Amino acid sequence: MTELNTALKNCPAPAKLNLFLHVNGRRADGYHLLQTVFQLIDHGDMLHFTLRDDTALRRVTDLPGVPEESDLIIRAARLLQAEVLRRTGALPRGVNIEIDKILPMGGGVGGGSSDAATTLMALNQLWNAGLSKQELMALGLPLGADIPFFIFGETAFAEGVGEALQAVSAPECWYVVIEPGVMVPTAAIFGSEHLTRDTPLVNITDFSSHSRTSGFGKNDLQQVATKLFPPVAEAVEWLGAYGDARMTGSGACVFSAVATEADADAVLAKVPAQWTAWKAKALKQHPLIGKFSAKL
Ligand SMILES: C[C@](O)(CO)[C@H](O)COP(=O)(O)OP(=O)(O)OC[C@H]1O[C@@H](n2ccc(N)nc2=O)[C@H](O)[C@@H]1O
Ligand SMILES: Nc1ncnc2c1ncn2[C@@H]1O[C@H](COP(=O)(O)OP(=O)(O)OP(=O)(O)O)[C@@H](O)[C@H]1O
Asked: Per UniProt, where does ATP bind (predicted)?
């Protein structure tokens, strides 16, 4: 990350994997109560922020399928700009935001949420806004259930709708991730009449004691997603030959843990040409944690 007075370049927005995801119930407002372990991985988007001379917030990179107005990056920037105005009475300067997008949309790897979280952390620094980590997490939650986790910035056991977070240690390993080539709409999976919503609560304090190879728990969203989107089922079946393979989030991506980078390369070499696949290392911390003066 390069830091200047007027720009913050090369700010990473890493992906996450849900090592397991249990649906335990449904709230009155329709949102689901979950238990999950979020694992950060070293594969993600890269964002670049440059101050403007006016107060406009602009995404200067075209993102097919995501109009600038509905982009979580712009919506997050607007929220923080309004919050700073509320606190100080002065509207912060506008920003041009550039993005190198590599994460698949509707992939279950949290791309949009991570972009939004990185935007909140970077602009808090660039504008010298001084919000605490907890304040940024609360600001981001209405935009997406995964945003507080990315700002929290450590492998975490999450409860509630994903906002009650507790740091846990997890196995140090590599992951092979397959993109089955479909975009899974999160709301359709949660809204399915076939979704089971009654998995008993578990108690987790140290996730590293769970075996990397056998995998803990399950992803309750997987059964619904694989029925609606056969390519997801095919990827689970193919990768399952090399270890415990499961879907992340509401899909579509499917992952399996391996011990070393060489093991990951060996699996990647065999992935059928119809799928995009990549490897990633488990991260203990978000790369931006500790980089900014607000002690995020
Ligand atoms: C499934 C996960 O990927 C796990 O990490 C996330 O909880 C989903 O997070 P997300 O993609 O940021 O989803 P949001 O944009 O917050 O919600 C999309 C839609 O999914 C449903 N939804 C989401 C999260 C949740 N705990 N219960 C839900 O029922 C709601 O219908 C919501 O309108
Ligand atoms: N910056 C962004 N990057 C990606 N998607 C965005 C962005 N802004 C808004 N979106 C919208 O959000 C939707 C979900 O995208 P995202 O990549 O976060 O899904 P996901 O990986 O399935 O997330 P999750 O694991 O949180 O469910 C996209 O289909 C897109 O319309």
From this structure: 104-114
User: Boundaries of CATH 3.30.230.10 in the chain?
Assistant: 2-167
Contact by Cβ (8 Å): 208, 237: no
**Prediction pTM value:** 0.95
Pocket of ligand 1 (CB under 6 A): 18, 21, 30-32, 34, 36, 108, 113, 144-146, 161-162, 186-187, 190, 249-250
Every domain range in the chain assigned CATH 3.30.70.890: 174-283
Instruction: Kindly list the distances between the CA atom of residue 115 and the CA atoms of 15, 94, 247, in Å, as whole numbers in the listed order.
Output: 9, 18, 21
> ipTM above 0.90?
yes
Taking each helix axis from N to C end, the angle separating 133-140 and 72-88, rounded to the nearest 10 degrees, works out to 130
CATH of domain 2-167: 3.30.230.10
The closest alpha carbon to 243, from 175, 182, 169, belongs to 175
Residue 108 marked in a binding site: yes
- The pLDDT tens digits for 9-36 are 999 999 999 999 999 999 999 999 999 9
DSSP-derived 3-state class of residue 110: coil
Cα–Cα distance between 160 and 288 in angstroms, integer? Answer: 25
Q: Which ligand is nearest to the CA of 59?
A: 2
Q: Is 146 exposed, middle or buried (0-12, 13-18, 19+ CB in 10 A)?
A: buried
* Domain 174-283 class in CATH: alpha beta
Render pLDDT for 70-119 as a digit per residue (tens, 0 to 9). 999 999 999 999 999 999 999 999 999 999 999 999 999 999 999 999 99
